[in-house]
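Order emerges. As here.
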Amino acid sequence: MRLIPCLLILAASLTGLATAQSRVLYDSRIQTPEPRLTESERGRVRYLADQAAAQTSWARDGEVAMAGCTGDDFTVVGVAPGAFTIKGTRQTAYLYTYCYERPGDLQGLVIIQGSAVVAHYVFVDHVSAL
């Protein structure tokens, strides 16, 4: 008798988890159209990426991560609305690549809520590793 309520609770919680995971920002395995951004959005994300580069945010273990990188090939590869850091909020996530011109792409993920930057993560290599 107790098994049935437990199974119902488990099924309901798994359904919620599956729903939470349903937003895809970017999938490198499929061809996706370039995201449509306003110049203001693109400029804001570019500014944040330039700041990260100026602070050598991609450096790891003393490596000169910016060697040979000017950021001229900056590109926003994915944009998605959603609630990424706080449930029930309206946020936008921007996935970008700052530099392809070196071994291991320099990439970042920016989450903006209204006019505030909520999070900015940087990482090296391919977006699939995020």
Q: What stands out?
A: The longest helix spans residues 3-20.
